[in-house]
What we know:
Blueprint: H1 4-30, E1 58-65, E2 71-77, E3 80-85, E4 88-92, E5 98-103, E6 110-114, E7 117-121, E8 125-130, E9 135-140, E10 148-153, E11 158-162, E12 167-171, E13 177-181, E14 202-204, E15 210-214, E16 219-223, E17 229-234, E18 251-254, E19 260-264, E20 269-273, E21 279-284, E22 299-302, E23 308-312, E24 317-323
Antiparallel strand pairs: 1-24, 2-3, 3-4, 4-5, 6-7, 7-8, 8-9, 10-11, 11-12, 12-13, 14-15, 15-16, 16-17, 18-19, 19-20, 20-21, 22-23, 23-24
Amino acid sequence: MFSMKNKGIVLFLIVLAIVIVAVMVGDWFSKRPDRMEANKFEYNVDEFRHVPEEIILYKEIKNFKLGFEKPEALTIVDDLIYLVGDQKLKVIDATGQLVQEVDLKAQPTTVEVLGDRIYIGSKSEVMVLNESGKPVAEWKLKDEKAFITAIAAEEEAVFIADAGTRKVYRFNAEGELQNTFEGKAEQDDLHGFIIPSPYFDMDITQFGDLWVVNPGIHTLEQYTPEGNLREHWRSSGAKIEGFSGCCNPAHFCFLEDGSFVTSEKGLVRIKIYKPSGEFFGVVAPPDKFEDKIEGEAPDLAVDSQGNIYALDFDRKLLRVFEKK
């Protein structure tokens, strides 16, 4: 027979088991979607979606359906629009009329045009085409981690941004590797390019200055061809003046005066910054894009009239914005 002491222990254990079950059941019910308490620590960007009308400097004037299932990138040269996606290159004019279409051997990731050369990046190689779309060369990056996200070309050099190895490669016009750099100002710098996801853009101004995004720290950096940091500017924050979230700005290009046109993923928006890095105004606010948790940042280009073209990946449209 149990002693009184043993009976007390058994009774205590039974009561304890009942309490534990009650707590578990209550916790399960409280975690149902219709019963859960709002997360006090959840980061909510809804308040940043509204942009005052007086700082929106552009209006959308037209858009084009491109026929791409997976559009990837664009550039504009002499008012011809070069677009890649679906293992194709398409060239259209300002009215959307198809001028040229070329099948590609690999899925493209980016496109650049200089003179009579068309440079198209894929995961680990650059396909070099002539103006007729015929292949003339292939440049391969040997690292198996390579993931090409941007190409910027000038007369003496072609720069390739590789998000996989977090490096910029400089080739000469014949495809010979000249040097690479990792975005470190000094040899003992703790960080170079910080690229948590494959967003790593760069461009060259009409004055020949190479600018590269360091997206993990919301910074744009100017480099010499040899990879020496010359200057930089940074703007972080969810407010309209800053870059928010991870890996922004995702894409950028230049206006004729050297001003930066930027696009962001997540809280999608297109903005303009002065050549000094000072915020200037908005091209397209978040409510112009799909209302989703993680919207894609449009790729960007500018024509000779200063119109800004945005390749909207979510809607699969090429959208054109004109200054008001």
